[in-house]
User: Fold these one by one.
Assistant:
Number 1:
Amino acid sequence: MTQTIVYLLRHAQSLPDQEVAEPEWPLSDTGVEQALALVEPLNKLEIDRIFTSPFRRAIATISPYCSGNDLAFEINEDLRERKLKEQSMLDDWQDLIERAWDDFDYALLNCESGYSCQNRISNCISSLVTTHPGDTLLISSHGNAISLYLNKLDSAFGYAGWQSMKNPDLFRIIFTGDSPDWDKAFSI
């Protein structure tokens, strides 16, 4: 049966700014250095196709790798971060995230529940695997979206798992046919 490898890349450190819409948050200076440092380890993965969230920080994280290897990436709206709130930031965002992890149905008005985001990103990844069987895919996305996907693969991965994620972070999922298996032993 065909194996497809998916690498889920959480973007490098960003620079949140109350005055800038969240999708436009750039990488911090540290994040730029982190993105450059990803080039060498990503080179070892023999990636065939690259997909990214439309958010600036996700694109900026993979851009050095793409440029250095003359590779193109494809933007996929369904890889965007979960919308937790209408405004960019709020003082109690940590409490909001914790509540959202406690109740996957919880969502503020015009925002996305945990179940909704989890289904969106799961369907997106499944579709990419179905469309590109046997390939090695790199997907640049966000902490909340990726952690909700990982939770779908292993329900023990929850709020504490999300908190333990780094910027950047990389996870390997091996699909045999359309069946995903999270390779927890993998690290860069």
Number 2:
Amino acid sequence: MKYVYLVTLLILVEYLIMGYLVSKARVRFKVKAPAVTGHPEFERYFRVQQNTIEQLVVVLPAMWIFGLMLNPLWAAVIGFVFVLGRVYYAYGYIKTGGGRHYGFMIGMYATIALLVGAMIGTLTAFF
């Protein structure tokens, strides 16, 4: 499970970096808290962070269950693919607004794979 722990930490660090980028964008584009709208570029940074936290609700428990019930190395590998997908998503969204599709899909496929693996591992434990 040490690799799952490592990827969990990478996911959390990635999220914290996104939060930091939002705070820098807030200053750069002069969007005072608690406002979350006002400048389109700021809003892209903010949406990257918000969408990422929405994904973490599913990906983290799925990765842990997959790792505990099926295979920790594969859980970590797929979790790392999620991390890479989020980087690609963030870059595409922040730079163009419309370039987020492929990064989002990479992360989503990784999440689905982790969820399916977690389900398979859990169900096989019953039989």
Number 3:
Amino acid sequence: MAPLRLLTFTTLYPNAEQPNHGIFVENRLRHLVAGGGVTSTVLAPVPYFPSGASAFGTWSRYARVPREEERAGLRVHHPRYLVIPRIGTTLAPVFLYRAAAQFLDRAVRHGLEFDAIDAHYVYPDGVAATWLGRRSRRPVVITARGSDVSLLPRYPAPRRLIRRAITASDALIAVSTSLKDALVELGAPPDKVTVLRNGVDTTLFRPMPRDTQREALGLSGPVLLSVGHLIERKGHHRTIEAMPDLPGFTLLIAGEGPERARLAAQITRLGLADRVRLLGSRPHAELASLYSAADALVLASSREGWANVLLEAMACGTPVVASNIWGNPEVVQSSEAGVIFEPNTPAGIAAGVKGLFAALPARGATRAYAERFSWDETTAGQRRVFEHVLGSGAAPAGR
């Protein structure tokens, strides 16, 4: 049987300058291809930025992203598309589509062949993908991942385009039941949406000698860890605000972003410089050592689709304290995994931490819980979805 040839289309994909950007998309695709019988060419556009212009902070890094690279055995292409900060949200699908169509026309003339488009993030990526699908006469499968259906539909123009993309797509995947419900509310027929949660790589994320990891970081006493971009919705500021109610605890924050200066000032204002550390961005492969060093991971996000950090921590034997938002209760389902807290306030976080530490699960039990979330089921589910849209398989279970 000929392999299934995918064109994976998304702006959420790692590159040489942003190795952690969209790592969850790469991980799912990598496991799908590793299962055999599937190949993929990745089309991952990045915003245009003039080379040599270095006075615009993080934007200048886009000029250094290679036009083409290989990652995990997959060929990845990075054409440029126009982005207008703050005011370009409505036009984003148009600019993205034009850049991708120009690249794709040229690539097809040079021999690129694909059977279906595997798109990630409904807006603007999924919208542009449906236009590419119509242009190339190929079926389109869109994966919803979070704010693309929880936040962006609040705006009239994106909402209209999102609803059209839902109709134009051949199938939809949601990474949590909550996101499926949101897609249905936006007009998707329930049987068009398949829930395929993200898995966890239990080889990469595994328990490491705890004492060794703590010694390397100079840690003692109970340790909390927060991982994620330093942006408001990740809730790092709420976790920091909870620390005065958690005497004796140390908090490590791994991530980088525009909120760093504000968080540093908050740490100073609260007199927590000796107990809260901003570690900066860490390579994905190095996170296992941080998870292993911590006693618990705290996730105080206000929005998530499926928070991969929860399972990564659990796979390292570290339980979690997570806010009661979309997706999290689907990951944290037993005391071995950790606790769900509410309200999502500093007081709620402190209470959640105290509740967990009153009956900390054994690290082996937490690891065993995470092992239930391998990639195998998700990989098989993807194959069923694509086989169905290509007319060679039964309809996937929508769940």
